[in-house]
Amino acid sequence: MKIIFPFIFLTLLLTQANLSSESTLMLEIKIINSLPIGWGTLYRCELQEVIDGEMTGIDSTFTLSASVGSENMFENIHSLVIGDVYLMSFIKTDKTTKNPHIPAGTTGMMDKTGVIWNLVYLQKKE
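The structure corresponding to this sequence follows.
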C-alpha cells in the first residue's frame, strides 16, 4: 500500500510538467557508500529495481549527488544510511555537462551522456 503514494505523486508531477515516462524514472535503490564533500554528499547507489521508466544511459550503479541547497526539499537527504533501500524519482532535465562529475549544487544524478536527472521524490523503503 505504501508504494501507491509515489506512483500517485509521480503521475501528478508528470501531468503538471507534461512529461513522458522517457523523461522520468522511479527507482528502488540501495545506498552502498557515501562521501561528504564541501557542498553536500555523494552517495554510491546500486539499482535494486526499476519501478517506472527506462534506465537508458544509466548504469546499475551510479552516483547520487545531494546538494546542501536541497535540505529544504528533502530534510533527510544528507542522512541516507549505507545498506538501506530507498524509492527515488528523477526527472530528466535539459542540462548537460561534459565534466565527468555531476555539477555542484545538483541534487540528482548524471547519465552517460552528461544529462542531469533531478531528484524529485525520496522515501525510505520499509
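Helices lie at 4-17.
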